[in-house]
Amino acid sequence: MDFRDRLFDLRRQAGLSQEELANLLGLTRQAVQKWEAGTSRPDMDNLTALSNYFHVSLDYLVTGRDAAYCPPPPECEPTPPSQPASTIVHHYYHEGWHYEYKSERTLFGLPLIHVNIGRRDHWARGIIAIGNIATGFVALGGVAAGLFSLGGVSFGLLMALGAVSLGAVSIGGVALGLLAWGGIALGWLAVGGCSVGVYAIGGVAAASRVAVGGTVSAPLAIGLVVDGAKTILVPLEGLSDQALAEAHKAITETCPNAPSFVTRLLKFFVWAEMR
Predict the structure, then answer these.
(1) pLDDT tens per residue across span 31-45
(2) What is the CA 173 to chain-centroid distance, rounded?
């Protein structure tokens, strides 16, 4: 029987779950899980804490040769540590590194800051969350979800930035949102290499009202290759001043109820890219 088996037996005899033992030691459940799986071992401080709590010797925990019990409480009871303003946990495992920080202060039941990153899937949940997987008001991670999120795959109620992003304002390789900007963009206002929306700007653009770009299709289509009820074909040498004025007028007439920033963006793109 090795260390992981001895720890498992001691924990079960004490009637503790992995999470309960982790809480007693001020660690995460994953740390105890890895000890019992044999993929990592506790440091000397944690070995001492285990020895004191289970009333066994360090030699028994490490080698299994000495099963003599410590004197009974209170001599052997560990002194409860004073609660710091925050808890910092460093774990370095054989299969890779792991770092976790969780602030003691909370808001809405969540830590103000939770950082949980490593080589495997580690989930951070907090007001500000940073992790392999992160959920929070502000979330940064490989997979991130929150009011504001940044990640490989990003979901943001207000803003999302990522390779794949979904949010009210979405920026990414593939972006979906009310305002979407990306290589492939789908949104109410979409700007990208390939864009689809009510208003669309891009190399290839399709829109239900106005599309501006290279190859475009919309009721009002302005571009090099156009298809729509009203079209403005842009020659290779660009629009003349008169043609530019006509394009701006057509945008104003087609978008009478659109927010001013939308018509300004459409007009700016026509002016900047098609002169």
Answers:
(1) 888 888 888 888 888
(2) 15
Here the tokens at position 38 are 């044999």
**Burial label, 37 (beta-carbon count in 10 A; 0-12, 13-18, 19+):** exposed
Q: Is 172 exposed, middle or buried (0-12, 13-18, 19+ CB in 10 A)?
A: buried
Query: Token pair 């899980």 is at which residue?
Result: 33
Q: Kindly state the tokens that stand for 147.
A: 């009011």
Element (H, E) at 7: helix 3-13
Cα–Cα distance between 91 and 223 in angstroms, integer?
57
Measure CA of the first residue to CA of the last residue in the chain; give whole Å: 79
Separation of alpha carbons 19 and 29, rounded Å: 5
Cβ count near 85 (within 10 Å): 7
Q: What is the identity of the amino acid at 97?
A: W
Residue 88 pLDDT? 42
State both tokens at 98.
Answer: 């792991």
| Calpha distance 210→258 (Å, rounded) | 11
CA distance 138 to 255: 35
Where is average pLDDT lowest: 50-54, 80-84, 215-219, 244-248?
80-84
Q: Does 29 have pLDDT greater than 90?
A: no
- Reported as a pLDDT band with limits 50, 70 and 90, residue 275 is low
Cβ–Cβ under 8 Å, residues 123 and 114: no
Comparison of pLDDT for 170 and 69, the residue scoring more = 170
Structure tokens at 205: 């653009």
Q: What does the pLDDT read at residue 13?
A: 87
Is beta strand 113-118 parallel, antiparallel or unpaired with respect to 110-111? unpaired
Mean per-residue pLDDT of the chain:
85
Nearest to 256 by CA among 212, 215, 203, 220: 220
